[in-house]
Amino acid sequence: MMTSSNLQQLISPEQIQTRVMELSEAISHDYTGQPLTLIGVMTGSLMFLADLVRHLRIPHQIGVVQASSYPGASTSSGPLRIECGFLPPVADRDLLIVDDILDTGKTLSALKQQLLTMQPASVNTAVLLWKQSRTEHFPAPDYFGFQIQDRFVVGYGLDYDDDFRHLNAIYEFQETPNPGDAK
Questions:
Q1: pLDDT in the model for residue 180
Q2: Known active-site residue 103
């Protein structure tokens, strides 16, 4: 069935950039003098990660991991796969996992456990969006941009079937059937 989307802006580009700068300041303060490695969770975190590191005032390394359980869908439908092939050495370094959204907590929890096996000094988390109502059994992120309700959102790196990542704001996405597709 063909669909069209209905997008309603939840967070403006200006709100995002202001909050990203605030998070960068907090991270810079908290990690001054410590060996920090930021680890972006591909692909959704790219915009957030790029803006975040652009404003950091401390030396840092960057690595990325691929974690996926949303193959072309709006809800998790498969097993979580994590690939850590693009990480610099992390032993004895402070790690900050950077992701677009903390939804159920499964991805960050699994990734954190996997990174802990590499003997870092610490592993913390920074997310742009936090669906607190869905993460009751997962610790709060160490840094977060915005708390949101349990809605499917796109934009600023978040996608639906690899679309909408390019939008510079956060939108609620509601899929609606095209009228001509009803049978």
A1: 59
A2: yes
| DSSP calls for the chain | --EEEEEEEEE-HHHHHHHHHHHHHHHHHHTTTS-EEEEEEETTTHHHHHHHHHH--S-EEEEEEEEE--TTSSS--S--EEEEEE----TTSEEEEEEEEESSSHHHHHHHHHHHTT--SEEEEEEEEE-GGG-TTSPPPSEEEEE--S--EEBTTB-BTTBSTT-SSEEEEEEEE-GGG--
Tell me which CATH code domain 13-67+81-148 carries: 3.40.50.2020
Domain map (residue ranges) of the chain = 13-67+81-148
User: Which of the residues in the chain have pLDDT under 70?
Assistant: 1-5, 69-78, 135-136, 177-183
Catalytic choice (94, 103, 150, 162): 103
pTM greater than 0.85: yes
